[in-house]
Specification:
Blueprint: H1 3-25, H2 40-50, H3 57-68, H4 77-94, E1 104-105, E2 108-109, H5 111-115, H6 117-141, H7 146-160, H8 165-174, H9 180-184, H10 188-217, H11 222-249, H12 252-255, H13 269-273, H14 275-292, H15 301-312
Antiparallel strand pairs: 1-2
Helix pairs in contact: 1-4, 2-6, 3-4, 3-10, 4-6, 4-10, 6-7, 7-10, 8-10, 10-11, 11-14, 11-15, 14-15
Length: 315
């Protein structure tokens, strides 16, 4: 990781963690004034997965996008935390027996292994809905116009929902069972189209929503938002290709997981194209991401370095 990017992470990731702790422990008053705090076990389940570690990539993208639009990053801190809550909810649900059926997440037992399936589902639900409450609060605190506040909520909902991340997860579930025979019988083009659909929606959509959210809070023009959408799509796909490569060549202890996508016959870039071709695809996407940032100049240095980090990381 480049030194300036490391400094940005070292400065803002702890601030995100502290704000997440604050929001969970002492959130702002509820809009419906007679409501009481959530049940204790639900709060523990939400906290368990949210504070289990991780790169905090999506919050950093929110903050860096705000900075690229010439506004202080902390202006969007609450929304940065909300994006991490949405990401965490998706991981809790992905790990459930009915979906990916994983026992470990970041080297720790998954939420349903600790709290049971029903409470894990509710913990994910709680994080998702609380995120939108936080985003609305941030919009008011930042004095966004009504139109900009509505747009902020809209882009996050779009990136998170059935035409975004949730849709990508649904397509991913339906794509399991692609054995080598299936890939060799004239279906490679169909598999490529399906794979891109899955990862544009499952991974790139929430990454792009994070960037757009940060840019709206940063007062971006439509042209700037369009550049960040292109950047988000490119790094989102590159991120997933890098994940697919790490699943084959990475250290499982560093990754904090067992098993592999290959063993589960999941459709991946590596199964379709091999490791070396997949690496070339990722590098091409990162080049596209760099080009999309040209109009921002030096203000987008963190985003530029993040793009390189995505394909250089080891976990």
């Amino acid at each position: 990781m480049q030194e300036k990017l490391k400094q940005f992470f070292d400065k803002y990731s702890p601030l995100v963690d502290r704000e997440l702790e604050r929001l969970l422990a002492k959130p702002f008053p509820p809009a419906i004034t007679f409501l009481k705090p959530q049940p204790v076990t639900l709060g523990k389940a939400m906290h368990y997965s949210l504070m289990a570690g991780g790169k905090r990539l999506r919050p950093i993208l929110v903050l860096a996008a705000t900075q690229a639009c010439a506004k202080p990053p902390l202006r969007s801190l609450e929304t940065a935390c909300a994006m991490e809550m949405i990401h965490t909810y998706s991981l809790i649900h992905d790990d459930l027996p009915a979906m990916d059926d994983d026992d470990l997440r970041r080297g720790k037992p998954t939420n349903h292994k600790v709290f049971g399936e029903a409470m894990a589902i509710l913990a994910g639900d709680g994080l998702l809905t609380f995120a939108f409450e936080i985003i609305a609060h941030n919009a008011v605190a930042a004095k966004l116009s009504a139109a900009d506040a509505a747009e902020l909520v809209r882009v996050v909902a779009a990136g998170s929902g059935s035409r975004g991340m949730v849709g990508g997860q649904a397509a991913d579930l339906e794509a399991e069972g692609w054995d080598q025979a299936s890939l060799q019988n004239g279906n490679r083009k169909k598999a490529q189209q399906l794979l891109e659909y899955i990862h544009i929606h499952k991974t790139a959509a929430l990454i792009t929503a994070s960037l757009e959210a940060g840019s709206i809070l940063g007062g971006a023009t439509e042209a700037q938002r369009a550049c960040l959408r292109e950047y988000g799509r490119s790094i989102g796909l590159a991120f997933q290709i890098a994940d697919d490569i790490l699943d084959v060549v990475g250290d499982k202890a560093l990754l904090g997981k067992r098993g592999s996508d290959e063993a589960n016959e999941k459709l991946t870039f590596v199964r379709l194209h091999g490791v070396e071709h997949s690496r070339r695809m990722a590098r091409d996407l990162i080049s596209q991401a760099h080009r999309a940032l040209i109009p921002f100049g030096q203000r987008a240095n963190i985003l530029s370095m993040l793009a390189d980090y995505i394909i250089e990381r080891e976990k």
